[in-house]
Amino acid sequence: MTIPLPEGDWIRGITVHQPYATCILTGAKSIENRPRSWGWRGWMLLHAGQRIDAAALRLPLVAHTVRGRELTTGAVIGIARLTDCHQDPEGSPPCTPWAHPGAWHLVLTDVQELPLPVPAAGQLGPWRPTVGLVTRVFEQLPAFRP
Fold first, then answer.
1. What pTM was estimated for this model as a whole?
2. In Å, how far are 109, 114, 117, 137, 144 from 46, measured between CA atoms?
3. How far is CA 85 from each of CA 39, 48, 80, 107, rounded to the nearest angstrom?
4. Phi then psi dihedrals of residue 65, to 5 deg
């Protein structure tokens, strides 16, 4: 049984370069670093951007997290809920090992991986997905309840 999705402006997309998108998908990386604060809170389509950051693959934290996993690009690979956006106080330790000093940390929870990636363009900043894209994503998550 498919549960009807909410109508209106309830979901956004977030594009994250690989391998970081897969690190979020595994649940190991619970924050995403951004240069500016995001006002949006709520459900996000997790979109893997077209680019793979090859240097990041050499970081032990990243390499250990993505070992053996496919690094899909140019597609929505999961969903997550954005619950907070903060900066660590100056001089304090980072909120997680993934946190970059001076960056805004988007706190992502309730991460769910899609069985199959859904090709999509994505873009910088929080973006509004089309109804068709949202429908294709949530066909794979029939028990999803926002």
1. 0.93
2. 12, 10, 10, 10, 15
3. 8, 20, 14, 6
4. -70, -40
